Amino acid sequence: MVAGICAGAVAAAVLAAGTGGAHGYWMRTDARFAPPSALVPSAAVTYDMALVPAAAWIEVSQRTEESGATTVKLRVDGLKPGHEYGVHVHQKPCAADPAAAGGHYQHEKGTDEAHVNAANEVWLDFTADDHGAGAASARHDWGFRQGEASSVVIHDMPGTHGTRVACFTVPFGWTAGTS
Q1: In this structure, what are the phi and psi dihedrals at residue 126, rounded to the nearest 5 degrees?
Q2: Among 61, 96, 144, 168, which residue's CB has the most CB atoms within a 10 Å radius?
Q3: Residue 10 has pLDDT above 50, yes or no
Q4: What fold characterizes domain 2-178?
Q5: What is the full DSSP assignment across 61-130?
Q6: pTM value?
Q7: How much is the pLDDT for 22?
Q8: What is the C-alpha separation between 102 and 171, in angstroms, rounded?
Q9: Where are the domains of the chain?
């Protein structure tokens, strides 16, 4: 089974490489969730196995056009059926401590109502279906600044507040026009 896990990790890394340059940036990556203490570490970490069980699956893709407009898509499977989740792009990579992912990535930084909203952040809230699957997409006319978007955090409820129940480190990219 270890060979299967390693092969999956290699496939995910190849898909995550993305393309960039004058025509924008594109990438897609996926992983299976594992607890922080797992023998085989994963880029997808679950902190609450009742809501995001070990071996649940996540896929994130990004397409940034030459103009800088960015679309982020999320797909998940194996989560708690019928549950509503809040999902946001965060600033830092995942770690054993849920707080390590930092705050939400913001196009214009700030803490007031004008800054903490779906137009200034990437929100991917969804409700898991009867089988625990879900999907969401967000499109903005702006792109990520280099090195400032590093993960997708799943919260126990939609909106801006809630407990962090899982985290997925994602190789978000940028294009020269979005710095």
Answers
A1: -155, 165
A2: 168
A3: no
A4: Immunoglobulin-like (2.60.40)
A5: EEEE-TTS-EEEEEEEESS-TT-EEEEEEESS---SSGGGG-SB--SS--SSTTTSSTTTS-B--EE--T
A6: 0.86
A7: 55
A8: 16
A9: 2-178
